[in-house]
Amino acid sequence: MKLNSFVNVCINTWISPVFVSVAHVRSNSGRYKIVSMTEAQQECETRGMTLASRDDMLQSRALGLGMCTCGWLSDNTIGLVLRTINPECGFGNVVDNVVYTCSDVGYAAGDAYCKRQII
Fold this sequence. Notes:
This protein is an alpha+beta fold. It is 16% helix and 34% strand. Strands 1, 2, 3, 4, 5, 6 and 7 form a seven-stranded mixed beta sheet that branches. The radius of gyration is 14 Å and the shape is globular. The relative contact order is 0.26.
């Protein structure tokens, strides 16, 4: 099990803050070995987490998350988020402030981005 790039995000609500930790999770089988969203959900659940959404990724980006590594998201896509545009990542198609969708360019497997909410 490898957990990288934990980033805590505070989502302000009028009741109480909710903190979301987003982690990059790689299968025990290796890099880009998770072949379905169901498998990605299982990888997250095994670690007490759920799949992260695109919004979770963008909020985490604001606090420092940025990885040139494709991972499953809760909308059944494989994506990544960068802090700055990197021509060597995402085939140079990554637009700042946007989660790049790796599955749009043929990725059928990836790692997973998982989240844990802390209230």
